[in-house]
Amino acid sequence: MHSSSLRFFLSLNLSLLLFCGASFFSSAMAGLTALEALTEQLYDFIQSMEDDGIVDYHFKDCYNMKEANGPFLFIELIPTYISDSETTLEEMTAELDQPLVKFKHLEQLCTRLKGGTACIGACRVATSCGELRRAAIAKNKDNCLLRLEMIKGDFSILRNRLEAFLELERRIVTNDYQGC
């Protein structure tokens, strides 16, 4: 785990001690409201995901769109992305389990997953999707199976980080609406 990731997770654990109405929680954050501290932690978390190569700058750009689209944008977008991606991964797995793989269909599934993934800036998964698509174009089932396992591993890491991100985002939205 990179130091930025460790720093974020330690910071997140400290923030879990905050309750609505707490104005200060450490000398490093003295003077910040709970909402400001949570927001700072969220941006540190985004930076840690960038540092780890999980997401690129598009993720932060997408997150910042919530100011124009309402505070619940990411709380609604991320679970939908995760669910849709899991469904697509299941379809890819089913396709590769067939004795005669329909490589064109597999290419389409790769394009679908890569499109949604690239839109939120999840660059590692998007890159892995491109590699699977190239293996499908080459009609190389063994390489497709290997690349699919890589996507599943990358997606698992991404999903875990997005779920932690959402936990923090929900706390921010809750604090914002409670006026803490």
UniProtKB/TrEMBL annotation:
Keywords (A to Z) from UniProt:
Acetylation, Cytokinin signaling pathway, Cytoplasm, Nucleus, Signal, Two-component regulatory system
An example GO CC term for this entry is: nucleus
Where's it found, cell-wise?
A: Cytoplasm, Cytosol; Nucleus
Biological processes, Gene Ontology terms: cytokinin-activated signaling pathway; phosphorelay signal transduction system
Give residue ranges for domain HPt: 77-143
- Any Pfam family the entry gives: Hpt
- Free-text domain note: Histidine-containing phosphotransfer domain (HPt) contains an active histidine that mediates the phosphotransfer.
Q: Which PANTHER family match?
A: HISTIDINE-CONTAINING PHOSPHOTRANSFER PROTEIN (PTHR28242:SF63), PHOSPHORELAY INTERMEDIATE PROTEIN YPD1 (PTHR28242)
> How is this protein named in the record?
Histidine-containing phosphotransfer protein
Q: What is the lineage of its organism?
A: Eukaryota, Viridiplantae, Streptophyta, Embryophyta, Tracheophyta
